[in-house]
Amino acid sequence: MDPNYSAQDVARCDLCKTAIAQxxxxxxxxxxxxxxIGEHISDEYEKHKIVPILQRKSTLxxxxxxxxxxxxxxxxxxxxxxxxxxxxxxxxxxxxxxFLHLEELFTTSKKCIQNDREELNxxxxxxxxxxxxxxxxxxxxxxxEYKKLTxxxxxxxxxxxxxxxxxxxxxxxxIGEIKVKHRSILQKHxxxxxxxxxxxxxxxxALNEMEESNxxxxxINYSSKNEQFSxxxxxxxxxxxxxxxxxxxxxxxxxxxxxxxxxxxxxEERVFTAKKPNTLVRELLDxxxxxxxxxxxxxxxxxVSWFNEEQIWTSVYTADIKCFNIQSLxxxxxxxxxxxxxxxxxxxxxxxLLYTDVSTRTVYKVKNDQTEKIITxxxxxxxxxxxxxxxxxxxxxxxxxxxQSKVVRFSGSTVKxxxxxxxxxxxxxxxxxIKCISENRNLDICVADWKAGAVVVVNQAGKLRFKYTxxxxxxxxxxxQPYGITTDSQSRxxxxxxxxxxxxxxxxxGQFLRYIDxxxxxxxxxxxxxxxxxxxxxEYHKGNVKKIIYLK
Length: 552
Hints:
- By secondary structure, the chain is of the alpha+beta class.
- The chain folds into 3 domains: 23-97, no CATH class; 104-268; 284-551, TolB, C-terminal domain (Neuraminidase, 6 Propeller), CATH 2.120.10.
- It is built from 7 helices and 34 strands.
- The strands form 10 sheets. It has a 4-stranded antiparallel β-sheet, with no helix packed on it. Strands 10-11-12-13 form a 4-stranded antiparallel β-sheet, with no helix packed on it. The protein has a 4-stranded antiparallel β-sheet with strand order 14-15-16-17, with no helix packed on it.
- α3 (102-140) runs antiparallel to α5.
């Protein structure tokens, strides 16, 4: 735009610099008037994309095909993980492969970028601004607070006169040193937070540029940093020293000791709490309904884990972990590294498959057909597992002598928490039997302890909240021995009562709500829910997975 024109001036041609631009080259990103279009596209005519100026940046720029140079790649081969053109998709090299449209990936990634930008700009950054304001206010008040402290000490000094002058002078010096340390600690914390703020602002600027960009490759390769930024820095609590005043008698003057409370620093963890996107309370249906039955054809179906809207992972007493779609079609198979059957499976937030293997005492992660060890135990054997809302991994395990059981929280391969006892008494039965586990939306940890015949629920800190040992019912003749367990968006707990062919539904406090027993369940073993609270139940003997709707 011509700088000599006012702010209301229209876009000018980038070639002649004077004429009003009616068009735009979506490939070269330049404004063009009608006479200059011919000059602009005179070389490599096919590469230019001329559109009306109001439609600028509406044309996607696809990568060029490495095999067919004159063709643009509008798809990605899911099997080969490469970009392909229309000629490639029809070639024998990609016969029978599945293809993803780059336009759809581009649109999905754009939405992610927009959501991240909005969350960073509207929620995370303002939270940091509040922290900075709080710290700056605290630092600004230090002089006043410490002045009050020294004033109190000075009053005490006048009361005890010259006999304690030396002690008071030494204490004032100590206060000055403490204040320097106090200020240094807070200032260092403030500087660290401002540095993170700067990094977030830089990221936000990059997101703004990417949101306006129509380049496919950097857009679909975008990786969100919001999870990293959402982990707020710990709050630095530095205790103010306190002056301990003592009444003085003449006899005490010679032995009087005045002291300050100890100076110490404590880190208090901050937890970023994002706004809940949906606070709608969903009530239970009067009669749950089976939406679909996925026939896996696999006997002794032990585990089910939701992958996406169309696919689930399943496992049995073989080394093959299989993925089926909602139409019962096999999508993919993963074989355990040891050839031993997996004790349990789960899917993490990145879509990677996790499984436990008692034969190697290891938890494995499978991503893009690559298997890696993430946890290997000594003296303990991993059994069941679940991924938490924060991305941690909860693993139930039993000791080599099969007398103890516990739950361990891992961040990566690092132990963060061990849950085993309640006031010195074991929380869980000490044996090798199944102890399926799930984290509730209120961060409680729920374990279906089969041998104990109980659902054991502890809070985030590992303190016992309650144990559920079934609900009286004249129609249920077999003892309650829970197998699979899961939780929904309403913090309800669902557990499989295998021997009574039913599902128990509890509220977040362990109160029984109702059974699911009208869906012709046969030996229900494991459970999971999807993002819309649809329940998936695997039937052990029949090898079916039933998709059930139980909420309004």
